[in-house]
């Protein structure tokens, strides 16, 4: 029997070839999607949609964006044909404007791999519309947390809010002198210490510590040299009503990528 989507979901989308890989993270996404009732729409805050404003994809039939290189060529032939939801994007933009955000629904914004890779696993049928929303790497965790709160207030319960990023994301550690690291490499201590600190505070609902993670979490800068891949986590945190998270999945790929997923209710 299918379960309802949580208020919000954070997923780590990993490398673009996750959709081709038989890994614990890929299997988790497939199983979660198979067991969850389909919402009316997905609103996906993607780490690969960056803007200073709040932008929402407004195309009825979004095209594909292959925003990567050096991976299996089969990826560049993949098409995720889920529809967009222009009226929802417009309504969301207006609701966010009314709460003080500089928000706009825009055209010609296709599905980046932060959206289509995990969504191919979560909902292979591509029969649920998607609106992508941008993150702002120059804004801090609190700004994204407040954006998540505004999104939840603007959306009905049957619309799933998904933050798609990476629980840890240091590409210098993933791509070495010899190319991509071993997918099954053991996570170093600087990854697991950060991961454990964040998980403890997500599960306990210590929001103030989380929003100050840059100063308080061990190895914060090493795990997130830039903000864009952790920003979707804070959008999802803000969209959850309880302020607490439930960890749904934990695994690692390429050593430095923690693939954790969390539900926020």
What structural keywords apply?
alpha/beta; 12 strands; about 35% helix; six-stranded mixed sheet; two-stranded parallel ribbon; single chain
Folded structure, characterized:
The chain has 10 helices and 12 strands. The protein has 265 residues and is of the alpha/beta class. A hairpin with a 3-residue loop joins strand 10 and strand 11. The protein has a 6-stranded mixed beta sheet, sandwiched between helices. Strands 3-4 form a two-stranded parallel ribbon. The mean pLDDT is 95. 34% of the residues lie in helices and 20% in strands.
Order of helices and strands: EHEEHEHEHEHEEHHHHHEEEE
Beta strands, count: 12
Sheet/helix structural class: alpha/beta
Uncertain ranges: none
As laid out across the biggest beta sheet, the strand order is 5-2-6-1-12-9
Rg, rounded, reads 17 Å
The biggest beta sheet reads: 6 strands, mixed
Q: Roughly how many Å apart are the termini?
A: 20 Å
What does the overall shape look like?
A: globular
Question: pLDDT average, as an integer?
Answer: 95
Percent of residues in helices? 25-40%
